[in-house]
Each structure stands twice: as C-alpha cells, then as structure tokens.
Amino acid sequence: PLCLCWALGPAAATNILLLLMDDMGWGDLGAFGEPSKETPNLDQMAAEGMLFLDFYTANPLCSPSRAALLTGRLPVRNGFYTTNGHARNAYTPQDVVGGIPDSELLLPELLKKAGYTNKIIGKWHLGHQPQFHPLRHGFDEWFGSPNCHFGPYDNRERPNIPVYRDWEMVGRYYEDFKIDLKTGEANLTQLYLQEALDFISKQQASQQPFFLYWAIDATHAPVYASKQFLGTSQRGLYGDAVREIDDSVGKILKHLQQLGISEDTFVFFTSDNGAALISAPRQGGSNGPFLCGKQTTFEGGMREPAIAWWPGHIPAGGVSHQLGSVMDLFSTSLSLAGLQPPSDRQIDGIDLLPAILQGQLIDRPIFYYRGNELMAVRAGLYKAHYWTWSNSWEEHSKGIDFCPGQSVAGVTTHTQEEHTYLPLLFHLGRDPGEKYPLSFASEEYQQAVEHISGLVQQHKATLVPGQPQLNVCDQAVMNWSPPGCEKLGKCLKAPESDPQKCSWPH
Amino acid sequence: PLCLCWALGPAAATNILLLLMDDMGWGDLGAFGEPSKETPNLDQMAAEGMLFLDFYTANPLCSPSRAALLTGRLPVRNGFYTTNGHARNAYTPQDVVGGIPDSELLLPELLKKAGYTNKIIGKWHLGHQPQFHPLRHGFDEWFGSPNCHFGPYDNRERPNIPVYRDWEMVGRYYEDFKIDLKTGEANLTQLYLQEALDFISKQQASQQPFFLYWAIDATHAPVYASKQFLGTSQRGLYGDAVREIDDSVGKILKHLQQLGISEDTFVFFTSDNGAALISAPRQGGSNGPFLCGKQTTFEGGMREPAIAWWPGHIPAGGVSHQLGSVMDLFSTSLSLAGLQPPSDRQIDGIDLLPAILQGQLIDRPIFYYRGNELMAVRAGLYKAHYWTWSNSWEEHSKGIDFCPGQSVAGVTTHTQEEHTYLPLLFHLGRDPGEKYPLSFASEEYQQAVEHISGLVQQHKATLVPGQPQLNVCDQAVMNWSPPGCEKLGKCLKAPESDPQKCSWPH
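YS: structure for the whole thing
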C-alpha cells in the first residue's frame, strides 16, 4: 500500500526574516501610493499580510537606525550617536573608531539561545573594526559589507570597502564587486537574493529555525540595479532598483511557499530611514505626502513603509495604525522565538504580536531623536516638535537640501530652533504633511501638549545615555587590511594613527 | 418538474454611473496612499476594478471641468472660460450670466437616442439661468443645486442657493437644507445616496438603461458630513466627509449587486479637480505626492483619483497608466451605449474601453489650461510648462496659497511666468512632484520638447475657441426667484440689471 507519514513533533520555532531596505521612503511602494505602482510583489505581500501605516525608524540615519533595530534600544542608549555638536546625525563611515559596544545584547545573540541560526546579508553598519564584526555579535553567517558602498576610492587616501563572507573579506567594491556609477549597473541585489534563497533552503533542509536579516542597499546612493532591470522603470534608475528589490522579495516569499515553510516564517519588510530627497530623483526615492526626508525628524525622515507577512497567522489585507518602530522588531522577534527581552536594561521596542495577530492598538509614544537631542514626540495623532532643524544655511546655500521644494514657515528651519517651552504641534491625521501647526492658544493644543510633556518628563527622568560611539574618527582604522586580505593580495598599508573629532555637518 | 426559464432577448444596454467628487484629491483614497486609509469601500472598488493613476481633469476648477466632462470638449472650445484677464480660472457663481451654450451637445442628450433615462444628482454648475437648466440639456431628472453650497446669505444682497427637484426648486441651502458651518453637520450626502438608490431601483424595475451622474459635493468647502460620520475620521471634518462618501459608494455598488445589475453597469469614480489645499486641512484634502492643488496646472491641481468598476468585464485588480481625462467619460459612455461621438465638432475625449478592457495604452497628450491659455502639456511621462502661475503675490500676501508648504524655485511662481520659448520640462515618472526641471541643455530635454512642441502646434492650428461664457456677471441673474418659488413662498425681488465684468482674482 501507499503510505504517507508525518512526524508530529513539537511545533517548530518560527523563522524570522527581516527585509530591511536602505533609504527607501514611505511613498516608494504601490501599496503606499507611489504613482507608477511598480511593486506588484510587495503590494501582493501587503494584500496577503498587514500594512503598517504608522511605523517609524528610531533615527533618520542608517547606522543608528540599524543599531536600534538589533538592540531594541534608542541610539541614545546604545551609543550610536555623537556629542561633537548639538543634534547632529552621525553614522559609521570607514574612519569611525567606534561601533556596537560589547555590552549591548543583539537580537541574534539572544536568538541563539533558542537554537536559531542567524545570518546577515548585506550592510552591517555597526562598526567595521574587528571587535564589531557581526559574527562577534551573534550572527553565524555574513555576506555583505561593514560600510556603505561608496567609492571608488584610490586605495591610497582611502581603501575601497570590503565585502565579507563570514569572518573574512572576499573582495572589494568597484574591484571584485563592480558598481558602474555611470550606468548604475551592479548585480549585488542578485547576489543577495541568491544568498537568501540558499540560506533558507539550507535551514529548511536542516530543520533549524533561522533569523535572516536581509539588509540590502540598492536604493542607497549610489543607487544600482542589475542589467535586466536597468531602464525598466518609469522612475529611472531609482525605480529600476526598486523593481529589482520587488522582484527579489517576490522570489523569496515564493521560495518559502514552495518549501512549505511560509506558515512557519514571520516576514517583516521595512526601511532604515526616509528617502534621501537630497539625492532625488535619480538617486533617491519618495516620502509620499510627508515633509522632508532622511536626516530630518519630520515624518519624511522617519516614517517607513512596513509590511508584516505570515500566512495562516496574519489575516490577509490587514491595515494597522499601531505606532510601531524598528525597535519593535527586536521584541517581536524574541516573542516569536519564545524568549523574554533582557531585564537588566531599558528596552524601547515592544512586542507587536498583539497588534499583528489580534488587531490590538497599544498606546505608546514615538521619540524622534537627532544625536542625543529629543527633537519631537508623537503620541496618538499628535506630534510635538521641541527642536526643528532641516539643515544648516551654510549647507543649504551649497545646494544640500533635505526638503527640496518644501518650505513651511517656522517649521523647516535652517537654524536649530528651540521650541521646548511652546512645542510646535501637528495633528498627523488632519495634517500628515506637517504644514499647519496648531494654534498655541487652542484648547486642543494645550491638552495635547500637556499629555506629551508628561511622556517626555517620564522618558527623560529614566534615560541613561550610553557612551557615544560616533565621536572619534581616524584614518588608520579604515578598511586597509581586513581579515582575509592576505589570501587575496588585497592588504593595504594603513597610515599612522591620528584620531580626530568626526565631522558631522548634518 | 422544476423549470427555470430565462428570456434571452437582446443584450441590455449598459448602464452608466459616474461618481464625480468635488475637490477630492489624488491622495485622498487609501488605494492612492492616504495615510489614514479610511476608504475601505473605494479601495475594494479598486481591487475589484481598475485603478487609473494618470487620469486628469480638463481644468483645475469645478465648472469648466464639469462642462468638459459632459461635452467631451476642452473648456476653451465649449465656452467655459473667461477672457477678462490672462490665464484666469473662472466658474459659475450665481451672478454669472453665462452657462452651457445650446450649441453644445451634452452626453445625456446623446444617450437619449439610445433609450437611456438620465439623472443628475448633486451639483450642476453649468449655469443657473433657465436656459441652462439640466433638463433642457438632456437630463430627465435632477435632485441638487445649480451652484456651490456657499452661504448662508441674507436673501437681500444675495439669495441662498436653491435645491431643485427636476424643473422646480424645493428649498434653499441653510433654510430647508441645513448645513451647520460650526459643526460641519449636514445630511446632504445621505439624501444624494437615497436618490441614487431609488433611481437605480426604479430603472432596474422598468428595465430601462440609465445614465446616473452622481455629482456630490461634501468634500467642497464648506465641507460637511452627516451626524453619524462626524468625528469618525483621523482626518477631521474633511475625513468625515470622505468616510461618508466611501460608505455611500459601498452602498451603491452593493445595491447594484443585489439587484443583479452590477455586470450591466459601468461605474467610474473620479473628481472634478485637485484638492483645495487653500482650505486644508479642515476643509481640504490631499494631493498625495503632487505639487500644489486646485486652481493650478501642476499635477496637484489636475491629476485625479480614478477607478473603473464593471464586474465581469473589467479584470479585477487592474492598474492602468493610460493618460485619461474626464472628457474621456463622454466618449467612453457613448461607446458603451453603442453610439458614435458627434462628427460635426472637435471632441477631445477618447474611448477608454480598449484601455479598460484590453489593457491597451493609447498615445494621446494631456492639455492643461487656465482660461484660454495652454499652460502645460503632458505627453508620455514628460510634461512641459509653457506658463507657470501659482497665484498672485497680492493674494499670496493675504494668505491665499494654492501650494501651502511647497515652494519650488522658478516653478511655483507668483507672477505669470512665460516659458513658451524654453518650456520647463519634468519627467513625471522620476519626478511626480515637479521639483526637478530637466536641464535645457540635455539631449533628453531637446527631444522631449521637440515632440511636445509638435503636438502643441497641431493642437493650436485646429483650435476654434468657443464664445467665452464666464465674462459677464450681474446681480440681477442670481437665484432670486427660481421656478417653483411661488409654491414655497420663497420668491425674492431681484435688483436692477447691472452687468459687469466678472472679477476672477485667481
């Protein structure tokens, strides 16, 4: 006789797949109103899953956003900020000395305890010195880079950025991993896609739960796409990159379905910060109806596209107005793995599963930081700005503009404006674009600000800032001789150490 | 035996239902990226039908837009413009003398020949003097008003606007049809909904094909909603109005389904012009990622939300990039009725059925007019501006702003700027927000402008402007004593005739 047998063991731990985009904006997906509507796979993902319309990053810049995601903590706590100036954004270029402190507990470190195999594909951005290597912070595998894919460099003043496989470099951008700045051609997204498919297959075969952090960067300037996607978008090169990502996400989800593990895999799609309007339209995306972009604490800088997908668990076609944060991905992932968050430190992320699975709305504020300055706070539909700053006049006069074509009197400011005594208040339901501050004299203003002020007091009273990691830069720490360089003949000579205060103009 | 019998006569003519919104913007629907996503019925309509992302009005103001829709012709041809000043927007306030000329052939007049019963519910706006009455221009039934629901007036300087049922008035706004300007409460959308449901039921029972033009105005300032919708939206009063409309559209579509005629009824949803940003956020909507709003020839003024729905004919979930126009609703409706458009005059609308049913992309330009001045032209993804004007400095200094919070150097201009020799050129795929004009020196610019210039020449060479209808205003023609006023005791005494040039400040 024909016999079909199933082994009915304990329920497998849920796989976790985080699809983190780089500089992709809220307005870049068809499901979020992008007028070219060129993201059929992501739109389908949203139709089968849940759309989060009020999801935020923890900082409008890449490194601190990623540090927050992986630690569940605000950058001001985990050290991913600078005190070199007031309210300055900082990240990890290759001359930065700091990185993720050993004292921080990263999501993959914790997931290990539940038997997860953890892989990062793409951009790490939490420090490139040996002590900051992702495999020293909980990841088991890595294919990608420690820094942005800027370049090409001359390997004398500045080395090209290395690409790692696990512990060792396997080449450098612009040398072994080509990016054609003229045409925008690079096949990196295809490499990252294949890495993801292979890892998922391997994990499915071994029946081990996995955490895959797919942190790709095709939408970060210099924007790139593979040859078969170049010229396929109405939106130009940036749209080509989005189309390739959309296609890749479709293939990953289909792969999960074909392997029969889509119901065992929680997938979350989001971005590290708002679209870089300064690079638009060729090298930057769209923040839809929101004000300004990357680098700012306006909605355009911090509100992110976000989709949760988990067939059989998340009701199809859901829409959530839960205020969410990349830091929640830390707590939610722990919850999926059956783990408790660390109790010895403040965790800012919350477990979103009640919002995702039961449609609950959890009351919590969103804090908008630049450096260690609390710029703004959202509670419910109200957002209070305590400081405003778009970018400096000096930079603005050079054509650097984080709010191109947008100018709201008294709101988009080119000096750092303090409003701590009378915060600027917006109602983000009536005014998602932050164009109409409420009157200071209105009762609505007074009630909302009183409520938010209470939240701020509470927040500040318990805040213990971490040691700032992004203050010191040194040419000597750049990627001259990453591990593995000998085998490739790609070791370069480092200059003398000469630590300096990092310059953070934004 | 049980016998089921069907009479198999000739196929019934397709009913036509146009849902025309007032001042609703491209960005006001969830399906178009509105962040509160409060339009589940319209989003469902889009999911079951086809979304048009590149659909335009013929003029960024109400009366000319509606005249264009019903005649299939640009306002410059059908007379719905003014020559009192250069490139001025004009409409039909109650002191305007003009209206739709008898020489124009309106859609309902033509549909009559195919046996249609035609009803207009809501705002007519093609002139309120007796010769312009909708029942003199092809409609069989009317419930609604000839003008905007502005007011309340004192009935001495200016009469309140009448509400008509068919030939006669049945009351006036603020008197018999209440609008509470303080709370925003008015039950008009419910009246318009019930009218639509009743008309549809009646037509279904009589087995006569119908054309229903549902031209409601809850989203036009003063914005209103019924009591049960007040306070239900994240977006404030404007959102309450949208929610009530969304609910009503859902009920209308469900009614068609319950009557079993949804497959025999072509439904199209769109708006007359972009959101009135000057009235936002309490009294105005959103144009999503687009520049400026109502009154302007930027995308925010003229690109409209648009959904086609016809179960069993239009494939569900379709997305079209066909450049469409409200004038196409004229030609498409004729096609649905098996009629040919008039051959004795220039028709600007095209039959969209090949785009809707077969997914064809028909190559055609979009002309953006203010008055009789061709301000801009779109061909493919390129848009050339020959004239720019947001609004005058004089008005701007009084706080009248059609582009609040938006300011694009050299583009949003407060004087009328001529660019006819070197048009400002945008690529609307890469730059839907019209923020980055292409360089005059680029090859891309030269090729695109050459192409568009050819279209402009062709257009202008054959253009025969109609007699301008919106030049003369006269207090004596206001709604003092509309037909039926005697029965109601609502006749008012008109002042002496004193014709003046109408003042068109915008």
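YS: worth flagging: The longest helix of chain A spans residues 237-258.
IM: good catch. Also Residues 15-363 of chain A form a domain with the Alkaline Phosphatase, subunit A fold (CATH 3.40.720.10).
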